[in-house]
Design a protein that fits this description.
The protein is mainly alpha-helical and 345 residues long. The strands form two sheets. The chain has a two-stranded antiparallel sheet. Strands 3-4 form a two-stranded antiparallel ribbon. A hairpin with a 6-residue loop joins β3 and β4. The longest helix has 35 residues. The protein is globular, with a radius of gyration of 22 Å. The N terminus is likely disordered.
Length: 345
């Protein structure tokens, strides 16, 4: 891949490492190493997810710092890892589905956009990334939705309702671990209970992933085209610039943070509605709340701002997750390439 600052000046081209597509990957190594690497990433970022989830189901607007302090005082460090075992159990199959769908779609749509539709490389890349994000999100939700339903219910266990901190939630049941939660949900609602919020999850994560991957592609190209030459060294043969490894990782991380900000702003209200649908059982122990009822409750509690509760932790979580994910993901793809010499990696 290369970017050109001036079309008639080949010396200004920035030569980035070659893109790695689906056909170039050793699939067994790709999925095995990916499961290990992303499990570590999930464990590192899990406390922020717990914080975001508790903020989204509170009746009052509580700052993330006050919420974190309340969890630490009442539950200790363990409170930040409630439901982690259940979440980790779903990471391997969900990530396998996500990465497989992502790479297959990106490769096929990118080739179609370039070869059949004759789009520019930048346009084809943005479209391929957006389509890949949608297909990956939809595939992963087959596993993630039931895992989310169980793990999020465990995340909000132990909220301190009597401290006046505003952390009390309504419509919650008590569970003794992931297996107990799974059994109780199945007994009451059957399989349908495990897939509560599946539709809204698709409506949340499909556009979120589309916005993220398209924004990432655009930001990545914009950064390299704008200031990329300042982070590169001139090739020995004098025919352009080649970035070192640190510059490549830095631009990937910055692009991921920018994409996360755009995605979080666009999809935050849907994520809040989804979380409440999956966690709360209705006031007074009644039947499961509907989407319209959940929206009305949020509007009563704080108007539009209530839909953006947890935006700070979600943006931070998405930024850190995306930064580590994209750098880990690119590293994983290079580790999993069949023959790095033959592909010029």
């Amino acid at each position: 891949m290369s970017f050109t600052a001036a079309e008639d000046d080949s010396a200004s081209e920035i030569h980035l490492p070659a893109d790695i597509d689906w056909q170039m990957l050793d699939k067994s190594k790709f999925f095995f190493l990916g499961a290990a690497l992303f499990s570590g990433v999930s464990g590192t970022l899990y406390p922020i997810v717990v914080l975001k989830t508790r903020q989204q189901v509170t009746l009052n607007d509580v700052s993330c710092f006050k919420m974190a302090s309340s969890i630490f005082k009442s539950e200790g460090c363990r409170g930040f890892y409630r439901g982690f075992g259940t979440s980790l159990m779903g990471t391997i199959p969900a990530r396998a589905l996500y990465m497989g769908a992502l790479e297959v779609t990106k490769s096929n749509v990118g080739n179609a956009a370039s070869n059949h539709l004759r789009l520019s490389e930048a346009s084809a890349s943005a479209i391929a990334n957006a389509a890949a994000g949608v297909s990956a999100a939809m595939a992963a939700q087959l596993v993630w939705t039931p895992i989310d339903v169980v793990s999020q219910r465990l995340m909000v266990q132990g909220g301190d309702c009597g401290s006046g901190s505003g952390t009390c939630t309504f419509g919650l049941k008590k569970y003794n671990g992931g297996i107990d939660a799974f059994r109780k949900i199945m007994n009451v609602d059957g399989v349908r209970g495990l897939y509560r919020g599946f539709g809204i999850s698709i409506l949340t994560y499909a556009p979120s992933n589309a916005v993220w991957w398209a924004s990432y592609s655009i930001a990545h190209r914009a950064i390299w085209s704008g200031i990329g030459c300042y982070f590169c060294k001139k090739n020995d043969c004098g025919n352009g610039y080649r970035p070192d490894g640190k510059a490549v990782v830095g631009v990937q991380a910055l692009s991921a943070m920018m994409a996360s900000g755009a995605s979080a702003l666009v999809t935050m209200p849907l994520d809040t509605i989804k979380t409440r649908l999956q966690v709360l059982d209705g006031e007074g122990g009644g039947r499961s709340p509907t989407i319209s009822q959940t929206v009305r409750n949020l509007v009563k509690e704080g108007g539009l701002s209530a839909c953006y509760r947890g935006l700070g932790p979600r943006w931070a979580s998405m930024s850190m997750s995306a930064t580590t994910m994209i750098t880990t993901y690119e590293f994983l793809k290079r580790l999993s390439t069949k023959s790095q010499e033959s592909y010029g990696i």
